[in-house]
Amino acid sequence: MKIFYSVLLCTLVSATSYSQKTKKPKKDTIQQKTVKLDEVIVTGKLKKDPVFSSSSNNYAKKIVQPKNIADLFNNINGFSVIKRGNYAIDPSFRGAQYEQLNIQYDGGTKAMHACPNRMDPVTTHIIPEEVSKIEIIKGPYTVRYGTTFGGIINLVTQKPDYEDSGFHGKVSAGFESNGNSLVNLAELQYINEKFDIVANAGYRDFGNYKDGFGTTIPSSFKSSDYGVKLGYNFTKDQRLKIDWRQSFGRDVLHAALPMDTEFDNSSILSIDYKIENIGEVVKSVSAKAYHSYVDHLMTNDNRPSFMMMEAASGVEATTIGGKIEMNWKPAKDVNLFSGIDVMNIARDGERTRLVKIMNGNTLATPVTFNDKVWQDSYITDLGFFTEAKYNLNNSTMLTAGVRYDNVTSDIQDPEADFAAMYDLEKRTEHTFSGTVSVKKELSKNYILEAAYGRGVRTANMIERFINHFNVGQDPYEYIGNPDLKAEVNNQFEIGIKGIEALKNGFNSFQFQTSVYYSFFENYIVGIVDPTITRKFNPTSSPTNVKVFQNLDEAYKTGFEAMAQVNFLDFYNFKSEFSYVYTKNNDLDESLPLTPPFTTKFTVGFEKEKLWANAQYNLVSKQDNISESYGETSTSGYQTLDLRFGGKPLKNVTLGLAVLNVFDKGYNSHLNFSFTNQADFGRTPVTEPGRNFSAFLQYKF
Q: I want to staple 73 with a disulfide (CB 3.0 to 4.6 A). Which of 79, 87, 154, 303 is the partner?
């Protein structure tokens, strides 16, 4: 039975083809003896995997030269990306984004952005080539990994290759024609039974790309990264791991933001410890601690507004957190996970403006102004959780969890006008979340899942403390609200997945589908306040501002579906569909950033040393929009991507691709609009046109 579920679930979440050929079991290796860290999903384990979870890996066969980690989500069903250029890209899942998604590295490590415009989202602080797989829990269906509103994304980085001890490494290089972009990576590792060490370094240089209309889009950037991982095995059941990485972004152009990034430096340190097989009742104890720091400088030196005003904004963000969890079994059929986690986010920084022209008149002596960006604010979340898995019978697993969070927030250096609006005192919130789900084996080849989750998200720092800054898709200045109530997502979902063996040249048919419905409490949006006028450039339109507020009458519903036929041993045909519908009844419109209906058809061929696929993407028009957010209807589009890869030599991997084969000119509905650009109006950023890509990797 365990073997069946391993095959079934791995196949369902894999984008590669299924083969009926079996492999010989591997010999006992260090990997099998080493305590496993970093993962939230143990793929193929019916009694351990969270409900509605999946894992995506082998990105090299699907993605070629990703700009940052957000590009890895483009081919995962249900995901879209929010784009402000080539660098500032955020994933969106089922219409949830930003802090509505719990995005973490290696089972809990976080690095929060410093820029209020999200020039440096969490996806920019680690190189894509370091990600071995992406684990996804598709809703608030677990309480073990921090507060979860719309889902969990765990980016699992590369682990040492324990297939063979000793010294190993790899070097790789890639090129993209559209932008003359280069990617380089080098990695070394040494492994023995007691300890392992992995070190890597990478460099990326992306130029401005041309869209399908032949227009050059300002989107170039450079980044360099390095990381070191050290693992030590005290015993076969006890492991310590230390990770250190730094990332350096330089000369980043943001097509849809008012400024560009001069530099973006981040440092992340994490320490993990786990001990297993402790006793009959207490099975394991794990602990994690991490610290991340982001130092960010943005300017308008290359923008049209520089002639009237020079602006430079230096901001910083510090994230400190940790977690202790115990796995214990008080009874044979009950598996409990109990623990405590904490996360503190602190931000500060200011913007300096040298005003040269005021009210249409050139000043003989420019005037300098200093604006407090984050007003020296912090948010601390201390959480307590317990989650139980109970075997109702041999084919049914019930999971239930409850979580309490104590959230403290404070603003320590407020601007005078912001202090005049609110009673600014340290605030403490008490939130409760929970989930209950069931996973049922209907028959030998089918699994039914059903779940309810109550996910709670307290307001982020932008929503609480931003003061007269442009942080939305529209040109409004936004003002935070430190009195916001926490958002609540009550989500229900039911789904089924299965696999059937076929005959006459067809190997198997597999499918999965789920339908969900969410109703929201205290949904947070920015709403125009006609009583407050702009603080900066007061004569510019719009003259009023938006203030973040809570709404009660909002919901979303949707579905995802996948079907795949595997035939002639090495071929497959797959179709995927995703749809989201949202409604804000308070304003009688859609919720912001709702993706359109998306369909993908993929035909592929895969052998051990040769693979190829063609993916046809169909995206519908989106006229279910949020006008109050500044959205406009977008047209549908169709694109074709071709990918080919192989291993011409024993340790060499070669990849070739043609993306957007027909050079289609289009923009994604979630793309932000060009802002403060000399040759562009306020229209959505367009996507790259035809792009030839090549990738070469050598392992030793």
A: 79
Flag residues of the chain having pLDDT under 50: 1-32, 60, 62-63
CB 621 within 8 A of CB 594: no
HSE of 444 in the Cβ direction (CA atoms, 13 Å)? Answer: 2
Closest-CA residue to 151 (of 111, 106, 112, 104): 104
Which phi and psi (to 5°) does residue 114 adopt? -100, -30
Element (H, E) at 8: helix 2-13
pTM, two decimal places: 0.91
Question: For 89-136, what is each residue's pLDDT tens digit?
Answer: 999 999 999 999 999 999 999 999 999 999 999 888 888 888 888 999
β-strands 181-191, 53-57: how paired? unpaired
Q: What is the pLDDT of residue 33?
A: 52
b/e string for 49-59 if b means 16 or more Cβ within 10 A? bbbbbbbbbeb
Residue 219, number of CB atoms within 10 A of its CB: 25
Inter-CA distances, 182 with 169, 645, 674, Å: 20, 19, 25
- The reported pLDDT for the residue numbered 133 is 86
Provide the pLDDT for residue 159. 78
Other C-beta atoms closer than 10 Å to the C-beta of 364 total 5
| C-alpha span between 598 and 578 (Å, rounded) | 5
Residues 6 or more apart whose Cβ sits within 8 Å of residue 207: 179, 180, 181, 220
Report the 10 Å Cβ neighbour count for 453: 30
- DSSP, residue by residue, 541-573: SS-EEEEEEEESSEEEEEEEEEEEEEETTTEEE
Contact, 455 vs 489, CB < 8 A?
yes
Note the residue count of the chain.
700
- Among 274, 368, 270, 358, smallest CA distance to 312 is for 368
| DSSP single-letter state for residue 634 | B
Is residue 160 reached through a cis peptide bond, with omega within 30 degrees of 0 on the bond before it? no
**pLDDT tens sequence across 546-565:** 999 999 899 999 999 999 99
| Sheet (strand 79-83) strand order | 79-83, 89-93, 96-97
CA distance 596 to 585: 19
Identify the pLDDT of residue 29. Answer: 42
Give residues with Cβ within 8 angstroms of 588, minimum separation 6.
Answer: none
Q: What are the structure tokens assigned to 556, written together?
A: 């979303």
Q: Given strand 102-105, what is the order of strands in its sheet?
A: 53-57, 131-137, 152-157, 102-105
- What is the per-residue pLDDT for 24? 38
Let me know: does 395 contact 344? Beta carbons within 8 Å. Answer: no
CA–CA distance from 15 to each of 18, 173, 488, 502 (Å)? 9, 24, 33, 19
CA–CA gap between residue 71 and residue 88 (Å, rounded): 11
- Dist. CA 678–CA 691, nearest whole Å: 25
Rg from Cα positions in the chain: 25
Tokens 């074709």 belong to 640
d(CA 65, CA 71): 9
Summary count for the chain: helices (H), strands (E): 4, 36
